[in-house]
Known about the structure:
- The structure is a single chain.
- The protein is α+β, with helices and mostly antiparallel strands.
- Helices cover 22% and strands 21% of the residues.
- The chain has helices at 53-69, 91-96, 123-126, 131-138, 151-154, 158-173, 247-257, 299-306, 309-321, 379-384, 502-509, 520-523, 529-532, 536-548, and strands at 41-46, 77-82, 117-121, 145-148, 191-193, 196-198, 206-220, 230-242, 275-280, 293-297, 325-329, 352-357, 396-403, 417-421, 426-430, 437-441, 446-448, 459-470, 490-491.
- The strands form five sheets. Strands 7, 8, 11, 12, 13, 16, 18 and 19 form an eight-stranded mixed sheet that branches. A four-stranded mixed sheet has the order 2-1-3-4, with helices on both faces. A three-stranded antiparallel sheet has the order 15-14-17, with no helix packed on it.
- Helix 1 crosses helix 4 (131-138) and helix 7 packs across helix 9.
- It is elongated and about 75 Å long.
Amino acid sequence: RATISHRACARVHVRTHAHSRTSWRARANRVAASAVESSSSCVVLVGYESSEVPRVRDLVDALRAAMKDSGMDIGVVDVLGVDDAHLGRAIDDIRRGAANPDGGVFQRNDPTAGTRVVMLYGDDAKALMPDLKLEMNEEGFPGAIFGVFTDGLIALPVGAAAASVASAHERYWDLRPTTAADSYTDDDVHFEYNGELDVWDLSRVTTAMAVAMDRADVLDTATRDTGGERLRSDASHVVAVDGVVGEPLRKALLDALTEVGYDHFSETGPPETKWNREMRDGLDDAGGESPPPSWGLTPETLAAMMETDAVRSFRARLAAMYPEYDIRTMPSDALEPDGIPGAWGGSSICSAVGNAAVYGDMFHWHIDMDPSQLDPSAPWVERFGSYVNRERGRPLFVSAMVYLNPGPWPAAFDAETLFLDPGTGTGVFVRPQPGRVVLMDQDILHRVSTPSQIANLPRYSFVLKLCFFPKRVDGPQRMTLIREDWGEPCLFGTAAGHVGGEEIYEDAYDDDCDPTLDDCDLWALGIYTEDFMLSSMDEDEEEDDDEEEP
């Protein structure tokens, strides 16, 4: 729906490997007839539709042809799609056509059930990597976890072997619902700072705003697993709550961001020992121009901030507000293409951000994250698939922001956080208040506004990027920020059924954009998704287009 904001983080890496694409399919007709050859290797597909198996087989045959052209000796590689009725059988039994000893259906009850897994059996199948994975991504297959039948896995039922590979993928990329850093005791919600004890309980929390906006019909990918594809009505949420962060916790968070004893009523900027003007609110545009820099925490300060008791207490209180979820910090590296930090846009994706907006800064409209926009090679997509935020049973991406300036913050100082409903060109805003927390779905379009000239102060805030994992195990869980005891959210803009009207499109887009086909509502804001979401795959496609021109 919009552009993703990338912030400079502690680690900025340059992608060190590139994959050259070859026109495998054009060489497929050179493959010798597989039917008369004896195969000792195979590619095993778990979680795939039967209609997808021939497409993978075509890719495998084309890859073998290309490798033979380059002088590699690659034998025949079968492609086997394993359905539920055969998941309880070992791979050797399936290949020999042996009867199922149990005569029943293998039930995948492990947490990774539903994940697509590609298992490689034999040396010739292993030799197809990494090209097979790259070509499957290029052909539009959903992301999948790739693994190998080791000696220990060959004897297991294929379903158990696939679950083992998926579990190893989770451990390696830190994709588990809970981590040591995100595990709390009942006492973690209480906080003491400078001799002031803040005994906290959930009854202190009040909602200043709960809004649903930016409605759209989106693909319900869960229906794809049942053999069809349906749309669901979807809207993003933003909530403003008070009472989560009391004065002792607010002071501790602000001191960690700045310095103990720093004068937050008169200093016109943050301390340069912990901040620098190198943070950019977005990616380079099509012309190579970067967004203007603003104040951002140094990598060392941000890393130290995440280890403080204050941040731990803040996270523990958020977890107490949502007991139906396992809440953890966003696993940033796993969201990057191939899990390489900085591979998506040059700067690493961050799981936390500090803001110190000052008069004269410029901030872009952006979203924090949308799982539907991730590259299919991202480890997150390989495990959880590509889906629009808020899909039932899938982890929910949430940002939690807390305003940290000491009070009062007069209305004339501005610096509100703005939220846009693109379909109507209208929006809502939240005013800063000491300790106020804003919870938002990460795919809601928003931006920082700067303090007014008369404020002459930075507006401090701290943002945690979180993933809410469903705890329900007996069926897909509804994923939402809105608590039942808050009642229904206020429907705003497109979520309330309002539309911008044809005359708005005609005036704003001057016939350059068809609102039925394009993101015209973003064009009017100067937001072009292709400028921000250009991936290595898109670059390759452009190169291919150039090669195909006569």
